[in-house]
Fold this protein.
Amino acid sequence: MSISDINNRKAIKVTLIYLVISCFCALFGAVYERFSHEVYSFFMIYAFAFPLAGGALPFAAYALTGANYPSAIARNLYHAGIATLTVGSIVQGVLAIYGTANDLSRFYWIAGAGLVIAGVAAGLVQRALSRKSKPFRDALSQ
């Protein structure tokens, strides 16, 4: 079994996990708004979009294209960012449905975006370093 097969299986597994999380968030939002006395929040309705568009789609692309799978640091930062954005959206939706606001909720968006950007940057650095060291590996193998 090659490394690309293992990475492909990991990407498929992560994609399925994100799809389950997206379905849970959509169901949670529907149930919460069902009992919210006809008060709606777009943050609650679209909380599923973060794990779907930010999680399932990119990792499905990894599985379909066979691209280099990101390092653990890049993946963990990225997953933490998507989780922070999802939870922030749900918290913001709960606050909106309750009829209040909190200035601290904006830090969910800042922290989530920062973690996603850090994860993408770590993945790009990993890719650049692996391309840079490839000529050295090729020279050593000759």
User: Anything to note?
Assistant: The mean pLDDT is 87. The first helix runs from residue 3 to 34. Helices lie at 3-34, 42-45, 49-65, 72-98, 106-141.
